Structure formats: C-alpha cells, structure tokens
Amino acid sequence: MLSRFVPRRIHPLKVYAALELGIGLFGLSVLFGVPIVGHLYVEGAAEGFLGLVLRGIVAGACLLPPTLLMGGSLPAIARWLETTPKGVSWIGLLYSSNVAGGVFGCLIAGFYLLRVYDMAVATYAAVGINLAVGLASFALSTCTDHAGGGNINLARAVRVRRVGWIYIAIGISGLAALGAEVVWTRLLSLLLGGTVYTFSIILAVFLCGLWLGSSAGAFAARRVSYPVMALAACQILLVVSIGWTAYALTYSLPYWPVDPWLSLNPLFNFQLDLVRCVWAIFPATLLWGASFPLALAAAAEPGEDPAKLSGEVYAANTAGAVVGALVFSLFLIPNLGTRGSQQFLIALSAAGAIVAAISAMGIRTIRNTGVAVALAAVAFSAVAISSVHDVPWEVIAYGRRIAPTIRGADLYPEANRTKILFRGEGINSSVLIAERAGQRHFYVSGKAEASSAPADMRLERMMGHLPALLHPNPRSVLTVGFGAGVTAGSFVPYPDLESLVICELEPLIPPASTEFFALQNYSVMHDSRTRIVYDDARHFIFTTKQKFDVITTDPIHPWIKGTSTLYSKEYYELVKAHLNTGGVVAQWLPIYDSDPATVKSELATFFEVFPNGTVWSNYTQNEGGYDLVLIGGNADPIDLDRIQERLDRPEYSKVLKSIGDVGLHSAVEVLATYAGRASDLQSYFAGAQINNDMNLRLQYLAGLGVNSMAFQKVFADVLTYRRFSDDLFRGSNARMDALRTLLRVKR
Questions:
Q1: Confidence of residue 745 (pLDDT cuts 50, 70, 90)
Q2: Which segment of 46-55, 172-181, 198-207, 639-648 scores lowest on mean pLDDT?
Q3: Which of 379, 556, 560, 604 could join 688 in a cystine, given CB atoms 3.0 to 4.6 angstroms apart?
C-alpha cells in the first residue's frame, strides 16, 4: 500500500522515521490497551466458530495497526535506491539486515528480557529501539539529499504476465516456508521439549537461515544473468532440502545419544538443541532466504518505483506465509499428519519451481532451459515425496528423553514391550496411547500425562474425589483438561451431580481416551450430565457467566510454553470468582520435572489467592508418586464424620468403590493424603516469585528446571512442614486419632 499512498517526492528516511515512531507508539498502546479490549470483549464473547471469528477481529484490532507500519518499512527505505541490478541487490541486503535484527530480537526477548524482567520491560525495550531508529532516520534525512523520484518506466504492462508468475512463485515460497515452520516446530518441540526456550531457538535458527540466505541471494542477484532461473533452482533445491529435514527428523535426530539428565546446567542442553535445529532445518531456511532477493531481481525493471517493486514482492511472499501458517496448522496437520504435510511441502516447492520456470519460458533465450527445470522439479519431488515417513512413535511418547528411554528398552526388552493402541496428530497436540506390562499409558506431545498405573490412578482420582468430598454437596463441576478422563470421570458416581463441564483444547483427545480408558474414566464423555467445551480453558473461564461448586485444574506441565497462564495469579482469581459460595478448587502441581524455585513459585502464587489453601500428596512407599494437589476455596474445618457418613450412604457406594480401587477405603484414608497448608509452608516459599500474566515467570523458571533431578528432595522438603492441627480437622476422637496415626506413619 505504501507506494500507492506515499508520494515519491517525500524523503525515504523521513517516511521510514515516521513508520518506526508509529510502530513504537502502537506498541505502547497495545501493552496498555489489551486489558481494556479484553473487558470489552467479554461482553460479546461466544463459543464455536463465531467465537474464533470474534477473537480474530480482536487480534486484528490490536495487531494490524503496528504490523501495517512494519510491512511498509522495507518499501519506504527501498526508495533510497534504484531498480538497477545493483540497487535491487541492495534492497535484498536491506531485507537481510531486517531479518538479522529479528534473530537478535528473538534471542534477547526469549532468553533475557522476558526471563529476567517481564512483558512491560520487553515492550519498553522494543519501543526504545523503534524511537532510536526513528530519530536517527529523521536526523539522517536532514543531512542527506533526495532526488524525489525521476522518471518511472511506464512500459511495465508488456511484462505483467511474466512478473505475475514470479509473484506467484515467491508467494508459494512464503506459503511453504511458514507451513514448514509450523510442521517442524511441532516435531522439534517433541524432541527438544516444548519450553519457551525451545521455541526461541527454533525461531532464531529459522530467521538466521533467512538472514544468511537472503544475504547470499542479494549478492547473487547482481551477478546472475537470469535471476528467474536462479529462483527456480532455489525451489528445486528446496525439494531436496525439505526431504533432508524429513529424513533428519525421522531417522537421525531421534537417535542422537542425548540425555538431558546428564547436565544440571540448562545452557549445555540449549547448545545441543541449537545444533540439532541447525542440523535439521538450516539448509531449507537458507534457500527460502535466498528466494526473496532473487524474486526482486527477476521482477525488477529499470526505472520503476523501488517501493512498488519491493512492496509487491514482499506482499506476495507475506500473503503466502499467512495462508501457509493457517492452512498447515488448522487443516493439513490435523488431516494429513506431519508426514503428509511434509510431502505437501515438497509438492509446493516443486510447484514454485515450475511456476518460476513458466516465467522463464517467456524469455526466448532460456525457454528450453525453463522446460528442463520444470521437468526436473517433477522428477525430484516424486523421489523426495516417496522418502518421507512418520517420526518414530517413541518421539511422541518420550520426547526429549527418547535416547535414555530407548536404551532402557533395549536392556530390558520383555519389560518394555509396547503395543501401540492409538496414534494421532491434532490441531494442538500429538497423542499416543500405548499398552505395556498390562498398563495403559497416555502421552501428549512427548510427555506422559496419565496411565492406569496405581500411582497415576491414585492421583487422577484424588484430583476429583478430594474437592468433591470436601464440598458438602457438589452439583456443578468444571474440569480443566480431559487427559485420560479419569479425573473428570471421578465425578460421575456422585448422585447429586447435575452438570459436568470439561474444557479441552485438543478435540482429538476425548474420543481416543474414551475408547481406551473407558473402564477407568467411567465413560464420562458419554454421560448425560457432561458437556465438553473445546476451547482454551483460560478463555472459557474468562468469558463464561456460569459458576461452579468445584473447579479442578489438571493442565499439562508448567514448563510447556503457554501453560503458565493456567498457573498465574490472575487465572486463580478468575477461578475464585467463578466458584459458588463454599466452592472448592483443586490444582495439580507436579514435583517431578521441577526444581525448588519452580515449586516455590507455584505454591506462592496459589496461596496468594487462596491463603487458607492446603496441600495433598499421592505418594506411597510402595508405589511412589511425586505429585501434589492444591486445594483452595472453602475455609470451613474438614469434618471427618460428615464425609464418612456420606460414603456410608447406599447412593455413595460407587464413590466408595472408586476411591477404594486406588487404595483409599474410608474418609480417614482419603484425608491421610494431607501434606500441609499455606500457613505452615510460609517460610518454605517466602520470597518466591509470583507468577502473573505480565511476567509469566513460571514458564521461564520451569523451562530451566525441567531436567532437574532434585524432585525427591523438593518433595521431602514440602512434607517436613506438615503439621496436624485441630482447627483444620474435626471429628470423633476415634477418627481423629486414626488420622493422626496415619499422618505420623506417613511422615
């Protein structure tokens, strides 16, 4: 749009300065305006497709103003140059320089600004850079001359058709590049762990390849006689490079001897992650980077407006990227899987080569070469497509710990013989259900999330039964996360339950879990009282008007990027606001895959909102179990007699059987899982960082401590603060004595 609305006579550096200053101002407005927009959005929020459309409108309102200015920055500065071969090469170098800044911005934000400070400080730093660049550009404009335009070549119409093919080719290149980023980020995050640091590394490597590739392409653009042929050659090489990445992700990286537990310093693991990303995806990113300046050179005509040239090529490339990001994430991966999506990427690159070759056929001297290139693209793509296979199932199951797990399976083949029951790839997650040694295991994106093993069943049932029994009569329940469905299914036996809402982000999970865990989850998906909402839990609680007697939150681990919003102070405040009077909230807190700083932050944040909260443990000496359940809400003393009286009723026989199946046969045994309360643990988590929406501190702490082996010590430290108090429990002398005895033995 810039070349159409900004006259060529205005100094390019002044235009660039105005754009940078505008981006900075919009950045500040987004930081302070999003909370206001959020409150307005709540009033009209909806579920389903309409809800997605409304969210898209809100995102557009917040992000389009600054990104429109960002998109105009390259065409604006391009007017400082001419559309000669040398000038076009410099435009390519300007693009390369911009991407280079993106590499450093990604790493500085992901590894320093957001980790050490918060979103506000990161925004201020970015705005400061915008202001500095804008003021510097304005200062330079006052001491440099600008000719104001010159003659524009009006003979462009005779070559519109050939240039149109180039725009299509670079659009396909952008589509494939962003589609590949979506697919490869999904697969690499399985192998490296889905932390915020992993995503920063993957993005930095991707951008670094674009930077170096565009630099090389810019230098090549002024030297090759036919840039369009070089563009076509890049697309053919991309066919080979995408095939290499697919091979590396399937047959190479999963078998590297990488054990993340060997190092206590996460920086060493980050170095290995960086090397693995470079090994797999760097070649393709170099070629996508080189494609942009070559497309500029192929489309350029001496004398035309450089802003129009760069703007149109940039627009075509970015439009393709937008389509690629949406189509691959929302449609291709859920329907074709990552294997089919990578095959489609190869076909896209071949199509890009053919389209560029068609453009070359318009040049008489290289017409036959163009035909040969098109035929070569078809041949290479056929071979590459046939070579793509699914990643090993162990990648989905064991993720970053695949190497030590496979090694253990090789040492004890009989004990680790695994039968795959289900494998699927959804919009948000990759899911695997397997059976081993008579037990079923549920994996999501490289992590074990649930199983029918005794310790896991005990935890999953506790997540449902504890809040249900602590509440006098739960009628309405919200469960965050379906998983294997055991926690949600724990509410099914309660006779007075009227409504059970389950919020799940991945539509693939409930049907699969219902098929293979129906015995354990009581077929909760098909219970008449159940309603499954396929939505982000934070968004659902933020927008719903409904209140609940019990809310149980069982999300994935806090080190997974984005999950820390379900462990934040603001989230707990939302949960508290959606509890009925006397309502109870239960929050899962994993000790394994954590370090002391992470656990202390989780406890401090929860007890900041629920100061009378308590801690419960699923640990037993025979079965292990390093998980905690945090309970908040109802502050009344826990009445052992009342709970036992409920369990003794005939209508509660199924509830009693459900807890009995996991080794808890009475109210005393259920309450003997008590592990402490907020007032006793104050000295343990004193000074811990509170995880809030502005700093999301937990995802950075948890990402650093994910490979910690200190979980047993952390667990023991928490339990040392447990104190039995008569103001927390009440009941008959016999039951109180029995509870004291069990707690003393457990300690």
A1: low
A2: 46-55
A3: 604
